[in-house]
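Entry type: protein chain
Record version: 2
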Amino acid sequence: MRTEIGTAVFTNFESFKKFMPQDSWWPRNEMWDKHFFGPSALNAGPDTYMSTIDKSYGPSQGIEEFCRKAQLLNIEVNKAMFEGWQHNMWNDASGVLTWMSQSAYPSMVWQTYDYYYDLNGAYWGAKKACEPIHVQWNSGDNSVKVVNTTSNALQTLNVEATVFNMDGKPVPSMSLKKSLTTVPSNSATPALTLNLNPENLAFKAPMTASSDEGDGKLPADATDGGIGSRWSSLYSDDQWIIVDLGASKTFNQVHLIWESAFGKAYKIQVSDNKTSWRDVYSTEDGDGGSDFLEFPATNARYVRMLGVKRASQWGYSLYEFEVYNQRSQNLSNVHFVELKLRDNKGKLLSENFYWRSLKGSDYQDLNTLPKAQLKVVQKTTEKAGKVRMNVTVSNPQDAPVALAIRLMPTFKSSGQQILPVMMTDNYFSLMKGQSKTVEIEFDKSLLGKDVVELKVEPYNRG
């Protein structure tokens, strides 16, 4: 069992303003540390958490904007903690236990729902990952697996992966379907692998290298199509990694995505026999990051990155080694991966949704999404001391993407959030023409003489 895994989890603005004096709202200050968002948070990593939001979703101008962006990170991180274990189910641990479910004091760390019982993005990320029948995507190798943690095997399932651009239009060339005959109990069964870069001649190509650091940092990890894995060499200057294209092919570009251990001086070399090499590119001034290298078109079977001088005390490390003859921009910089799992009668068993970037973890283009234009139909009933709301949220066919839609029941008289509330879903996203029905329930006694008013707020609310 992997225990006490957790992270900073910033609250929604509605909870934040309940415990934080208004003169301490923004920017970050000593008062935040009294609620464990500073040195007192120890290994919860609030500094990393805040810098990640800034880099991934852009710097915030105020606390309300920061809280809204924090929920996207909360969803990402907490879903990934459980899906990461499920991807390697039973291989290295028998489960994951997060620290913790709820903070006993108004806090900004270690929680999946907050002190006031608000179910923020962390809760919905964890809930999605932990559904008994689940379909998930691994950003490290672009594989899609079906996870079955029930006591029974599942028969005849259909998996569908659809890639959407920022404009909400699907990308058919990168979308796949697959039928599975059986998914055993307590297993994660491979279904399909997305190729989100079909023009990359090196995708899944055989790799060899002068050295590597073992599992998780092997040569093959540099051509798996994802930046969640990498090849890493031993700590010396003279190291290399070779792509085998399988046959002689024409190409004129190499794309290297470096980890922080990059090459200060290196060469790109080609060969037909893996013995005699000729240079097509060289530099003595490498700066890491993402290197798009162009050279006159050449024909060869093997392509080698030959390290000459390291930029650090470490070796050389590449997230991806890509080779191209042509490169067209089929994907927007930020795009979406939607997964659906159905039985043989078409019943939806699981669905999942991710945002992905061609620039690593830079999702700032999400801030340019046009204002969502949602339609909401709701029915509210009272029975046995409970208020029950049946809410259908629809995104019109001609409307933009609606990202991370949050439903929040409030008191009509004050606009304040009603808590605690049970819901079947939240922070869901809708493409063009899609809809979702959510059930909401809370104790009628919470209302008193007031009435409920539902707020529906997507991330791109304008």
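Comment: The chain has five helices and 23 strands.
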